[in-house]
Structures are given as C-alpha cells and as structure tokens.
Design a protein that fits this description.
Number of strands of chain A: 31
Helix content of chain B: 25-40%
Shape of chain A: globular
Order of helices and strands of chain B: HEEEEHEHEHE
Largest sheet of chain A: 5 strands, mixed
Structural class of chain A: alpha+beta
Structural class of chain B: alpha+beta
Radius of gyration of chain A: 23 Å
Strand content of chain A: 35-45%
Shape of chain B: extended
Strand content of chain B: 15-25%
Oligomer: heterodimer
Distance between the termini of chain A: 30 Å
Number of helices of chain A: 9
Radius of gyration of chain B: 31 Å
Largest interface: A-B, 85 and 60 residues
Chain lengths: 436, 199
C-alpha cells in the first residue's frame, strides 16, 4: 500500500514522486487508499511492533482512517461525536504563513501544541518567496510529507501546505483554498454580492449595484453565481457567469423571486416565487424551460436546497402552523416533514455534499446552527448563528454570527464543534455560500 | 557583415538560453500555486444586464422551449413615479410571524381602497416588511405574504383590479426602527403603501 510504505521512506526518496500522477491518484482517492482490508492488517501489525504505541492509539488511528474510508462510515463517527482534536506542532514559520497555517489547521480539527505534546510535527520555513513544509509523526518518526510551494502569494502557499497536511493525516481533501460568496452590506440598507477566500480574506465585489442583494448560491463546479438583487426595484433572481462577466435576470415574475438553489448536476434551479399568490417552491431547468410549481400552500416556503443525488429538495415552511423543514421529490410529489426532534422553528436547511447531514438554523429565542441526520431524527444545536452553508468536505460549515449591531461570517468544524471567525474589515456580512 | 550579425545574434540567443537553464534550479518537490490572476476578474467584467420588457424567466422567449407564462404574469406595473407620502399614514402592522390583516388595521386598508377608486390612472405598490426575528430568506417570504395579504384584501373586499397593485417584500432589510425592543419590532412588521403615478 502506497501510504504506509511511503511513511517509512525518507521524504527525499519520495520527492520525485510527489508531483507524479501516481502519487496524486493514490493520495486523492480515499476510497482506494483505504479500501483494502490488507492495509488495515498491515497497519495494525506494524504498529504492534512499535511497542510505545498503545492499543488506544491504534484504535484512534483506525477510527481516524475510517473518517475518510467511506462516507457512510464518516457519519457514524459524527454521530458518536468522538472525533478528537489532533495535536500538531508548528515550527519555523513566521508572520502571515504562521497565522494562515494555524487558522487552517485549527478549523480542520487540529490543535496547535508544543512539540512534546504533539502527535504530528510540522516544520519548515517561509522565505525567498516560498513556503516549505515537512510533516513528521512524532512517535514513530515517520516522515509523511516534504514539500515546498512557490508562486502566487504566501497566503496561497500556506493554504496549499495546510491542505496537504489535512490530506496526509485525515485522508480527505482540504478546504483551505476554497472560496465563498456572501452578501456584504453597507450603511443605508443596500449591499453587494462579494467573493472571498474561505477565511474571509481577498474579498472582492461581484456586483456594483448599490441595491439590496440576497441569497448568493453557486452553480456546482462552475465559476458562476445565482443571487437575488433589487436592482430593478423588485427582488429578481440573476444568473451571473463570473468567467465571462455576463449576467442576466433569471427569474423576474411579479412579486417575490428569491432563494435560488442549483441542483448538484447543475441542470435545474429550485427557487421561491410568489407569482401564483403565495411564496411557493418552483423548479425549472437551468435554461429557464420546464417551470414547475412544486408546492401550493398558503404558507411561505423559503430556502430550498438539493440532496446530492438531485432527487429531493429540502426547504422551510409551516405544517399545521408549525415551522418545519420539509422534503419533496424534485420532480414533484408528496411533501413530508423532516423530523428535527428537540428544536423548534427550523429554517435555512443546507444538505451536506456527502448526503448524510442537513445543517439548518433553529430559532428558540436566539438563532442556533443545528444539524440533523438527512433521514430526520434528533437535531443537535451546536452554536449561536444563522445562514449555514456546508463546505465541500461535508465537515466544515460557514455561518452568520450577530455581533453587536453587525453580522460576521464564522466557520464551524462540526465534529469538533470548533468555531473561528473569518477576517472582516468593515460592514456586515451574511448569507454565505460555499463554492462546491 | 549581415552573416556576422546573424551569428552574433545566434550565439547571444544560445548564451541567454543556457544562462536561463542554469538559473532554473527548481527543486523537484516544489509545487507552484496558480495565482488568482488565473481566475476571472469579477467586478471589472460586469456584463450589461439584459433586462428585456415584461417578466418571467430569463430574457424574453418566444415559441417552443420558452417558459410558459400566464397572461397575467406580463403586466408588472413597475414603471411610474413614486409617491411615498400620499398613503404614508396608512401603513398597517402585523403580529409577530403572522401575515393576517388585523381587524384594527382594516380601516386603513379601506382608506387605501377609497384612494385608489378616487384616483384613476395610478398604481399601488404594497411593500411588505418584517422585524429581524427570523432568518433573512424566511422573512423575505413572510414579507411577501404580508404584502399579498394587503393586496388580497383590496381585491376581495373592494374590487380593486389586481393589475393596479404590485407587491414587493424587503424582508428584514428595511426596518424603520433599529431598536431591539418589542416596540421597535412591532413598528417594523408592516405593509407600506406607495403610489406610482404615470411618468
């Protein structure tokens, strides 16, 4: 098995392969990497020979590997909430590289500690326009990674190193180089749609309309946003290709056009329209054809999201005067309540890319970010906030936090329940959407 | 002469190329990060909005393949000069998380209806609003329902033609009172009535 044999070679011996297709294929395919039972046996046997490792440590390691082994296994780890913070030490870094590495690793589920308390040692330097990193397992002294990064900015290089550390240890792709879209408000009630790095840095405006804007959402795997803007005076949904800069009104019926959500295959759009007399859930094709009304209730539907297989849409509504999350087949059919036991007034659902978990906002006095299994069940309130959006890793969530009179974006690592605020210079930010 | 110059140029080229190779000591384990300049610029490539007349999905479509619009969808009376003062005193208020018209608010709506009947040629925009105790998109839908409740009252009780009324929801985005008390919240849960006069 590539991973294990690799860990016993010196990094110098492996550097030739670090950028080879074989290396990347092996490193980026957790299913392949962890699918072999033989690999577990080999792993366990070898570690037994290392007498300083306790049985507990082996179990922990296997549990960690299970996180990435398969998605249905991952949720069981979440369910028992036994994911522990992994101690890692940082040495040799300074300034921006050090702060970026610390931020990225902490929100990925690591704890930055002294070397003698760490399970992994990350050492290197940042100078001469590049960031270098060497990752070592402190207990067995195995060298796991040795790599240097050049080009773009120091921030980007450090993000790339953090992602490689996450991939090496957790066996899942990192999120440190992913992007978010959100609403940035200015005084007076108007705002613009913005893009930024996932940590809030490098924020850039997408719109320059000086109008109320809302609910940006990504076309999956495309550099393309849908959002609501009152530029015309009315809430219309716009389709905005960020590659060409072209945008056009996508839905501009009388009344409300808002809360667009693009299906995971990029072919369909769910949205809330009030053109039939009440805010209802509608679906059409991405080219605007095939407009279909999925709900017809006197209540107000809001915030649709898609299951990863595109078959089901989850949205917020009321059933018998009770606010609920509701599931409905995306081609139309009977709507059913999603059980969210233990909380009240749910809204703003977002379905994790792995299909297992729906994150949403509950309102019980204050707003709370909660999770519930996608099949329904006991909901778990995690942290005060609203507007949650999943990262592509199905583990991290970005959400809005009210601080004083303004709103800021914050990150939540769901398994460890760690929260970190993103960078924000001024104004209010809300309604984040994580590019997937 | 010419040949000598060419030869010099040739030698110089080789020299430069070799020097370049000599300097290129990129370690084999170095990953080059593509810069943000490889991504599309955002704000400086804003396309012009292609807002055609009418309403519906995307740019106006004709013939097969276009979205089916009902005739009533086309007449969205969004043109006109705003007159926010004519009915400024008629603002109606709502209970928390409700869109039903309270009995206490009905006289104001009746006055709005009288104004509309006595002022032919103008149109009415009903703006639904919410307090901040609700998530943004939930409130956007709730505000729309409040605006529609006002519209339906005018249509059903007073026979105001539906094509003279348009609705817009601002959700929680246009509070009149930024306070955090129930008194402030109550002021924000409202329908404002705006007259649109022909330009």
């Amino acid at each position: 098995m590539h991973l294990f044999s690799f860990s016993h070679r010196s990094p110098e011996a492996e550097t030739l392969n670090l950028n080879s297709p074989r290396f990347h294929r092996a490193r980026s395919d957790p299913h392949r990497a962890a699918s072999s039972n033989r690999s577990y046996a080999q792993l366990a046997a070898t570690f037994h020979r290392l007498t300083f490792l306790s049985v507990v440590a082996i179990a922990a390691l296997i549990a960690l590997r299970n996180i990435s082994a398969a998605e249905d296994e991952r949720i069981s780890v979440y369910g028992t909430a036994k994911v522990r913070v992994i101690p890692i030490s940082l040495s040799g870094y300074s300034g921006e590289a050090a702060s970026v590495l610390r931020f990225d690793l902490e929100i990925a589920g690591f704890d930055i500690t002294d070397p003698d308390k760490a399970q992994y040692l990350l050492s290197g330097k940042n100078d001469g326009g590049q960031v270098e990193g060497r990752l070592q397992d402190r207990l067995n002294k195995a060298n796991l990674l040795a790599k240097a990064y050049t080009g773009d900015t120091t921030r980007s290089q450090a993000h790339a190193l953090a992602d490689d550390v996450v991939m090496t240890i957790l066996r899942v792709p990192g999120i440190a180089r992913s992007r978010i879209a959100f609403r940035q408000d200015r005084a007076g009630g108007t705002g613009e749609i913005y893009l930024a790095d996932y940590d809030g840095q490098n924020a850039k405006p997408v719109t320059q309309d000086n109008a109320i804007v809302a609910a940006p959402t990504w076309v999956p795997t495309h550099w393309h946003l849908f959002y609501t803007s009152y530029k015309s005076g009315y809430p219309w949904i716009y389709s905005h290709n960020l590659t060409t800069g072209e945008r056009r009104p996508f839905a501009r019926f009388p009344g409300l056009n808002s809360s667009a959500a693009i299906s995971p295959d990029g072919n369909r759009v769910a949205m809330i329209l009030s053109k039939s007399g009440s805010p209802d859930l509608w679906v059409c094709n991405i080219d605007g054809t095939g407009l279909t009304q999925l709900t017809k209730t006197p209540e107000d539907e809001s915030s649709p999201c898609w299951s990863p297989n595109g078959k089901t849409i989850c949205f917020a509504s009321k059933i018998n005067e009770r606010r609920s999350l509701v599931l409905i087949p995306s081609t139309g059919g009977a709507a059913t309540r999603l059980r969210t036991d233990g909380i009240s007034n749910p809204s703003e659902p977002d379905w994790s890319p792995d299909g297992n978990t729906i994150v949403f906002t509950s309102q019980m006095g204050n707003f709370n970010i909660c999770t519930v299994p996608a099949a329904g069940g006991v909901a778990e309130p995690i942290v005060a906030g609203e507007d949650p959006s999943w990262a592509p890793n199905s583990r991290t969530v970005i959400f809005t936090k009210r601080v004083g009179g303004k709103r800021i974006l914050s990150l939540l690592d769901v398994p460890t329940k760690r929260v970190k605020d993103t960078a924000q210079i001024s104004g209010s930010r809300s309604q984040p959407s994580w590019a997937k | 002469m010419k040949r000598a110059n060419l030869l010099n140029l040739f030698l110089a080229t080789i020299l430069i190329a070799t020097a370049g190779l000599g300097c290129k000591k990129t370690p084999k384990n170095v990953t080059t990060i593509p810069g943000m300049q490889n991504r599309a610029p955002v704000s400086d490539q804003m396309g012009n909005m292609q807002a055609g007349p009418g309403t519906g999905i995307g740019v106006p479509r004709t013939g097969a393949g276009g979205s089916e619009l009902k005739p009533g969808d086309i007449a969205n009376p969004i043109d006109g000069t705003e007159d926010r003062s004519a009915l400024a005193d008629m603002t109606i208020h709502f209970e928390y998380d409700r869109s039903a018209i309270k009995t206490s608010e009905q006289p104001k709506l009746d006055q709005v209806a009288t104004f509309m009947k006595n002022t032919p040629g103008v149109q009415l925009r009903i703006e639904g609003n919410c307090d901040e105790r609700g998530t943004p998109e939930y409130n956007r839908a709730l505000g729309e329902r409040r605006a529609i409740a006002g519209r339906d009252y005018l249509i059903q009780k007073h026979g105001i033609p539906s094509d003279r009324i348009t609705t817009v929801s601002y959700g929680e985005d246009k509070p009149v009172d930024l306070g955090k008390t129930e008194e402030s919240y109550a002021k924000n849960r409202r329908d404002d009535f705006v007259i649109l006069r022909p330009k």
